[in-house]
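dumping this here before i forget
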Amino acid sequence: MVSAKPFDKKTGMQLSPYFPAAKYAWLQENEPEVARAKQENRLCLGTIDSWLVYKLTKGETFATDVSNASRTQLFNITDLKWDEEICGWFSVDAKTLPEVRDSNAFMARRTLKDFFLRSRSRFWERSVIRREPYMGRIVGKRDW
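structure:
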């Protein structure tokens, strides 16, 4: 049985199934695809912010900030790093978790061209090809 006292001291939170740690443990035990990814060393566990950074950087960066990491129940708020002992309680390998950066840290450089050049979406056609701001099109004329 895990004592809650060191847990509270390390994470600053009470043990609860509401937070990601318990959900990560459940996924690894109950979802075959997640268990397979863990066995193959290709599992990444993170919150929505780390997923967004990963997707927006086309897989180049898997990172989160201290504030989001601290809400997973796996982050030691004193040492400011993933807590190996607590990760072990939830069967989470700390290597599967995102790199933790300062809240104001640089994540990656991207331009609008990186996001819209490939798709040729209506957004791209209206705002870039016509050289008009898209919001102006929404607020202004409704000819779409």
